[in-house]
# Entry
Amino acid sequence: MLKKIISIFLVWRILLFIPLFFGNFFLSYRNGFYYTSVAHYTQPWNPTLHFLLSPWANFDGVYYLLITSSGYTVNAGFFPLFPMSIHFVSSLFGNISYFAPLQFFTGLLLSNIYFV
# Structure
């Protein structure tokens, strides 16, 4: 049973790369809504800006990373368990900085674990 769940999960995640690939080339952000992109907050050299990685943290992911870094300063409409778990796990591996790749990859890992 567990093997079937993990295989369905992996196939689902691999298939999600198809719209990410095409969306990168054919869809752009609306004017004035760049704040929903993780690229708006990170440095140009950040490894999370690859077009196959950055969509995993856009829109609500940006808010979760903001809450993880600086608490509820922008939008209190998100439940605290996910940002707290990102903060806790990423603090085990190093110093937490604003929109650090460590937070991004910790959030990506935790969201996939929670999904399974």
Q: What stands out?
A: Residues 21 and 52 are 7 Å apart (CA to CA).
